[in-house]
Design goal:
Blueprint (H helix, E strand, L loop, with lengths): L14 E5 L6 E6 L7 E6 L4 H19 L2 E6 L16 H20 L4 E6 L1 H10 L5 E7 L5 H15 L13 E3 L2 E3 L4 H5 L8
Parallel strand pairs: 3-4, 3-5, 5-6
Antiparallel strand pairs: 1-2, 2-4, 7-8
Length: 202
Amino acid sequence: MSTGAPPRVAPPAPQPLYLPGPDAPLAAWLHRPAGPVRQAVLMCSPFGREEISAHRAWRSLAVALAAQGHCVLRFDYAGCGDAGGDEDLPDLVGAWLRSVHVAAEALRGLSGQPQLVIAGLRLGALLALEAAAGRSDVAAVVTIAPVLAGRAYLRELRALQAATQPATPAADEAYDGLEAGGFVLPAAALPALEGLDWRQPA
């Protein structure tokens, strides 16, 4: 029995891109809708083990949004995933924030939309909030299971580090940064991450 609704047209396959950036080229995937663009959505992923765990669902969300008419961009931060650079980039947290800005500018141009929505998951939500505060083209920020304070997030990572590493590491394994779940944050990046705080004052 026909409902009278037009058939949904599947969006095109995601388009892989490399975006030039001030710190390193960024790997990105553009999900275009099959028809006119309703809105541009920039997706800021989590970090480390959480990014791996959420990758399939994050991609599925981008596909679903494109099927609803949105132009969506996923990307890897400088020093992460398939982007250029590594954890030893100077000002790593600043490089991540600049990555959000690079991706936002690229999405505006690719989508033809003057404004965008930024969606962030876990640490990506904290980076989305921080980046959006410095932009005038963000219509909304959507946070999913957000990290709202870098200091609290680092406590979580240190707890994971303590649970997964030997109590007495070998001398050649000593590291002055933070390694949790197989992912590393250098010591120089920790103060910058601790300085990000979007909790509401009591």
